[in-house]
Amino acid sequence: LVKCLISLPSVEYRTATVEVLALFNWLRRFAEGLIEGVVEDEN
């Protein structure tokens, strides 16, 4: 996967970077929602 990514043209590499960052941001928000749900369940 890494070989494939680093061999991409610059525009495609940047597109992949943006997509991965979007995925991680979604994952962070999802995890925060789960944590908030656990705290609410404990109250």
From TrEMBL:
Q: Does the keyword Repressor apply?
A: no
GO:BP terms for this protein? defense response to virus
Query: Any idea where this protein resides?
Result: Cytoplasm
Q: Tell me what organism the protein belongs to.
A: Syntrophomonas wolfei
* UniProt keyword annotations, A-Z: Antiviral defense, Cytoplasm
Q: Which GO terms describe its cellular component?
A: cytoplasm
Q: Which InterPro entries match?
A: AF1862-like_dom_sf (IPR023101), CRISPR-assoc_prot_Cmr5 (IPR010160)
Q: Which family does it belong to?
A: Belongs to the CRISPR system Cmr5 family.
- Tell me, in one coarse class, where this protein mainly resides: cytoplasm
What Gene3D superfamilies would the database entry show? AF1862-like domain
Protein name in the entry = CRISPR type III-B/RAMP module-associated protein Cmr5
